[in-house]
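User: Reviewer 2 asked us to show a designed sequence for the structure in our supplementary figure. I'm pasting the structure tokens here. Could you produce the per-position amino acids so we can include them in the response letter?
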């Protein structure tokens, strides 16, 4: 049985800046410190965090929404990541939802979201 991850984070940056940081391969490599392949074309493949995260881009709504399918080796169920961005106070509130998370990968993924993905992005905007 699969699980769902839901997280919310605030950033000291505009929705446009956060969206760009999540969709531009050069900027992704700046905040992750790893090589990135990314396009905003639906159905394009992507690879970030040096290939640790790979999948297919499903949908983009500039400055508001990113939806991706993340691949897990040997898993039949699709894991869908939806990132919503909303203006909030002087910055942006990001809502992350990942469905179809394999039960045995849940704790590692949750830690990865918090400790690698979101914390690195937050530090990027604090510099």
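Assistant: Here is a per-position design you can include in the supplement:
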């Amino acid at each position: 049985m699969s699980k769902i991850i839901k997280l919310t984070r605030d950033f000291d940056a505009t929705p446009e800046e956060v969206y760009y940081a999540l969709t531009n391969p050069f900027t992704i490599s700046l905040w992750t410190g790893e090589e990135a392949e990314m396009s905003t074309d639906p159905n394009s493949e992507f690879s970030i965090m040096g290939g640790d995260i790979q999948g297919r881009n499903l949908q983009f709504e500039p400055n508001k929404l990113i939806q991706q399918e993340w691949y897990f080796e040997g898993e039949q169920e699709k894991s869908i990541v939806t990132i919503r961005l909303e203006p909030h106070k002087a910055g942006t509130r990001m809502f992350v939802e990942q469905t179809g998370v394999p039960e045995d990968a849940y704790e590692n993924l949750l830690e990865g979201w918090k400790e690698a993905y979101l914390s690195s992005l937050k530090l990027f905007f604090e510099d």
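For the response letter, you might also mention the following. Strands lie at 2-11, 45-48, 53-61, 65-70, 79-88, 91-102. Residues 106-126 form the longest helix (21 residues).
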